[in-house]
Specification:
mainly alpha; 162 residues
């Protein structure tokens, strides 16, 4: 794994355009997801749509589960373990599971439940957000894949129960 991360970092150091694209996608794909989530939530509230409960509760539950797992597992980030500077500045701390990946996945399922085409678009943004977090050295592949799996599971469970 160390070689993988070091090669990702070297590539970003050698290619300013690649580095710029990674940083852009890493920073702005989660913002895009959040803006869409907020906008659709406001629309559901104004329409007094009963599905808002699934839409609101699933992401909150997902965040609580991720926080709990992170406290319990205490996994260091790749840049901490392998002692390199990540492509994008980030605080040290627990990395498993990825909070961004889990949040993006649960929001994707919630949006998919409300409006399928929007859910597909969010899935693309979620993939970009998670992948760039790996390529920038902030998360392990397993952090992101576990986050996606956890977020999708909680989202599906929330939509099924509510």
């Amino acid at each position: 794994m160390e070689r993988f991360y070091l090669s990702c970092i070297r590539l970003a150091e050698k290619s300013p355009s690649y580095r710029f694209l990674l940083i852009l996608l890493c920073k702005f794909s989660p913002i895009g997801i959040a803006v869409i989530y907020l906008g659709l939530g406001i629309l559901l509230a104004f329409q007094r749509d009963i599905r808002i409960w699934c839409y609101l509760i699933s992401p909150m539950l997902c965040l609580l589960v991720v926080k709990g797992l992170r406290i319990f597992i205490q996994r260091k980030r790749p840049f901490e373990k392998y002692q390199f500077k990540p492509v994008i500045g980030h605080d040290t701390g627990c990395s498993f599971p990825s909070k961004h990946a889990a949040s993006a996945a649960v929001i994707c399922v919630a949006c998919w439940y409300i409006h399928f085409p929007l859910g597909v678009f969010i899935a693309v943004l979620a993939f970009l957000a998670g992948t760039t977090r790996i390529l920038t050295g902030i998360h392990y592949i397993s952090d992101v894949v576990s986050g996606w799996g956890l977020g999708c599971s909680i989202g599906l469970l929330g939509c099924w129960l509510l």
